[in-house]
Amino acid sequence: MAYDKFVTLNSTAVPLPVENVDTDQIIPARFLKAVERKGFGDNLFRDWRYNKNNEPIADFPLNDSRYSGRILVGGKNFGSGSSREHAAWAIYDYGFRVVVSSFFADIFKGNAINNGLLPVVVSPAFLTKIFNAIENNPEAQFEVDLENQKFTLVETGESEEFEINPYKKHCLQNGLDDIDFLVDMKDEIEVFEK
Amino acid sequence: MEAKTLFDKIWDAHVVRQVEGGPNVLYIDRHFIHEVTSPVAFLGLKNRGLKVFRPDQTTATPDHNVPTLNQELSIKDELSRNQVEMLRKNCEEHGITHHGLGTEGHGVVHIIGPEMGLTQPGMTIVCGDSHTSTHGAFGAIAFGIGTSEVEMVLASQCIMQPKPKKMRITVDGELKKGVTAKDLVLYIISQISTSGGTGHFVEFAGSAIQSLSMEGRMTVCNMSIECGARGGMIAPDDTTINYIKGREFAPKGAAWDEAVAHWKTLKSDEGAQFDTEYHYDAADIEPMITYGTNPGMGIGVTQAIPMGDDLEGTDKTTFMKSLKYMDYAPGDGMKGKKVDYVFLGSCTNGRIEDFRAFADFVKGKKKADNVNVWLVPGSKAVEKQIIAEGLDQIFEEAGMALRQPGCSACLAMNDDKIPEGKYAVSTSNRNFEGRQGPGARTMLASPLTAAAVAVTGVITDPRELM
Ligand code: SF4
């Protein structure tokens, strides 16, 4: 799936200080019935965002007008649960380009990168700093520098480096995906099969 | 020669290319697909003008969206019907074997693969579904993938993956009476937490694992993903070989002998290195039940919910949020808590042995008035076997009815949803908020515990009725 190239991002962030945010919360199963990749953002965190009468739940961060931005900050073990890529699509479609946590579930992390959504792993202490910074000032700016693999709290200048596989970094920076790469390898794959 | 783990042996044999500074290009032997995670992948192929590269290595079945009553009628929900129909069409167009609703081969994708003998030791197996880990019970590398990766496998029969770390979980000793494979795996997850296995592929070993049946092993590997691992696996042995023998897609004749000889080499070498190791004693395990909203929140059925006093920060808020959702208090005992629904089924516990255990338990007893019991076979073959063995009669006499195969109440995507606020004891694998329906409250347990609850209507230690 084509996505926008990732360049350095400066943005405010939306905090979600909950641990083990699972894919069933990110996008509940009943919204997985589409056969196209469209509109999943509307149902992002559906059951945390709206009550049963479809009214927004005021204190959920996505409904809280103080918070905005293209960075979502979650508690540890973000994205656990199912392999549904719809979770990454929903977050991306809503408008986020980066998810920050101290720990991501494996499948979610892979799905995110494959769809142009950058998972940034920071230390637990730095994560707490980020949450505090947003709490003190919802307008706090953050910088995500993919080239230098650095996440910075702009106000204080504090930063932390994050890891990313060099190949995946190249893909994100250039908006490339693995399928083109694999299709080009067909002859080699055929030889392997014998 | 360097000592290798079972995982290394299979992985290394499937690496087509090691991308510089990047992941491995891994060849996939078997690809299972279902209706939910495949349509966008097929659409992707179409947009790129590609065909499925190896349709013969691909098998499809619709399971998530299907009703479990009146399957012979058309599916009422339009979106579900459309997805199921789309799978059939995509398979037809690309020459992929499709086991449609109501046909002999239909069922939950992780149940039909092993049943047909499509799942074999030494293979790499993927599916756009996290519980693909089930197939690891045969000594295969099996793991769930996302839709982009489904498209990769359809297009090239390969996937790009970094090699995970290796973990071994050894469980020695004997499981006590009334304690099953499900309790064993719930116990492990309660010990290492839902993120304890992240970044790893797990090999389960030890005498308690070896003495499990193939079906019990599938239950364990199925839930390996719930500790965050990419998958779980168990070295093949005679139990594995005897299970596969004679199945539809099992090798035959000379090919069989050759295969068996190869399978016997598939074990971790003496001295092979694991990144992480855990050891448990089977005798420490009692029937398990979950009290919270992730599979790591499990305790012995006779125990009380932890106080959470040792937790702080987001750990504490997460714990309290979870109990609030369940409407339980720290320190509550689980035994005697009211239950509204019992669900037997899913790729964790929807196999014939699970139905035998359940039937054996409820035989001659009656369903409690306050519970609804949903008995959902994992596949058409399981359903047939239940009827052949007369288990459906036992259920009927106990006041419970058998439904038709599908994922059912494992996830709230078809008609089988647990109503808001109700309590369900479920033999499935996830107790996330809303997993079984918006507002539904799930407690995970074994088929035996589920059977005990079905007849008492409250959380019950099955050993007291055995
Ligand atoms: S039974 Fe449940 S866990 Fe298994 S494939 Fe179906 S929805 Fe997924």
TrEMBL record, chain A:
Gene Ontology biological process terms, A to Z: L-leucine biosynthetic process
Catalytic reaction list: (2R,3S)-3-isopropylmalate = (2S)-2-isopropylmalate
Start and end residues of each Aconitase A/isopropylmalate dehydratase small subunit swivel domain: 5-123
Gene3D superfamilies recorded: Aconitase, domain 4
GO cellular component term, pick one: 3-isopropylmalate dehydratase complex
GO molecular function (one): 3-isopropylmalate dehydratase activity
InterPro entries: 3-IsopropMal_deHydase_ssu, Aconitase/3IPM_dehydase_swvl, AconitaseA/IPMdHydase_ssu_swvl, IPMI_Swivel, LeuD
Complex and partners: Heterodimer of LeuC and LeuD.
PANTHER family: 3-ISOPROPYLMALATE DEHYDRATASE SMALL SUBUNIT, 3-ISOPROPYLMALATE DEHYDRATASE SMALL SUBUNIT 2-RELATED-RELATED
NCBIfam families: leuD (TIGR00171), PRK01641.1 (NF002458)
Family: Belongs to the LeuD family. LeuD type 1 subfamily.
Protein name: 3-isopropylmalate dehydratase small subunit
Lineage of source species: Bacteria, Pseudomonadati, Bacteroidota, Bacteroidia, Marinilabiliales
Gene encoding the protein: leuD
UniProtKB/TrEMBL annotation, chain B:
Gene Ontology molecular function: any one: metal ion binding
Top EC category: lyase
Cofactor(s) the protein requires to work: [4Fe-4S] cluster
Keywords per UniProt: 4Fe-4S, Amino-acid biosynthesis, Branched-chain amino acid biosynthesis, Iron, Iron-sulfur, Leucine biosynthesis, Lyase, Metal-binding
EC numbers for this chain: 4.2.1.33
Gene3D superfamilies: Aconitase, domain 3
Domain spans labelled Aconitase/3-isopropylmalate dehydratase large subunit alpha/beta/alpha: 8-457
Residues the record lists as binding [4Fe-4S] cluster: 347, 407, 410
GO biological process, one term: L-leucine biosynthetic process
Kinase found in the keyword field: no
Task performed by this protein: Catalyzes the isomerization between 2-isopropylmalate and 3-isopropylmalate, via the formation of 2-isopropylmaleate.
Protein name as annotated: 3-isopropylmalate dehydratase large subunit
